Amino acid sequence: MAITLVNPEGLPEIDAYRQVSVATGSKLVFIAGQVAWDAEGVTVGEGDLAAQVEQCYLNIGTALAGVGASFDDVAKLTVYVVDWTPDKMPLFLEGVARATAKLGVTPVPPGTLLVVAALDVPDHLVEIEATAVID
């Protein structure tokens, strides 16, 4: 495993993810932003943030597996959410929890959540991209 996830002393310990990832591998893997499309390109969970977050994570898991990697190799996630407000956090975390349970992911790597006005398709509420490191 090329990634070690840590919460350094002096930074807040966040239950949902780790603050820092240390990469020691030799190959970088960049996963394009994944939206809530299934394998046929049909939007999953229209209007349902939790379902869309879950599908984004599952799509990242599929992309990683396609290059011989897993979430254990993810150094960082970048999340783009349409019209984010703090009251959406429980739905976001629900989607993450459902996906990580299915994928066997713990803990979640560091991430950045960015608010956007819209995504490529009006039905998409969230898009998530990943950077991984593998040996």
Shape: globular
User: Any low-confidence stretches, pLDDT <50, length ≥5?
Assistant: none
Q: Give helix % range.
A: 10-25%
Largest sheet: spatial strand order: 3-6-4-5
Helix/strand-derived category reads alpha+beta
The number of E-state strands comes to 6
The portion of residues forming beta strands comes to 25-35%
User: How many helices does DSSP assign?
Assistant: 2
- Termini separation comes to 8 Å
- H/E series: EEEHEHEE
| Rg from alpha-carbon coordinates | 14 Å
Could you describe the largest sheet, including whether it forms a barrel? 4 strands, mixed
Residue-averaged pLDDT: 94
Short description:
With 135 residues, the protein is an alpha+beta fold. The chain has helices at residues 49-66, 89-103, and strands at 3-6, 20-23, 27-34, 74-82, 111-116, 126-134.
Which helices and strands, and how do they pair?
Layout: E1 3-6, E2 20-23, E3 27-34, H1 49-66, E4 74-82, H2 89-103, E5 111-116, E6 126-134
Parallel strand pairs: 4-5
Antiparallel strand pairs: 1-2, 3-6, 4-6
Helix pairs in contact: 1-2
Note down, in words, how this protein is organized.
This protein is of the alpha+beta class. The protein has two helices and six strands. The chain is globular.
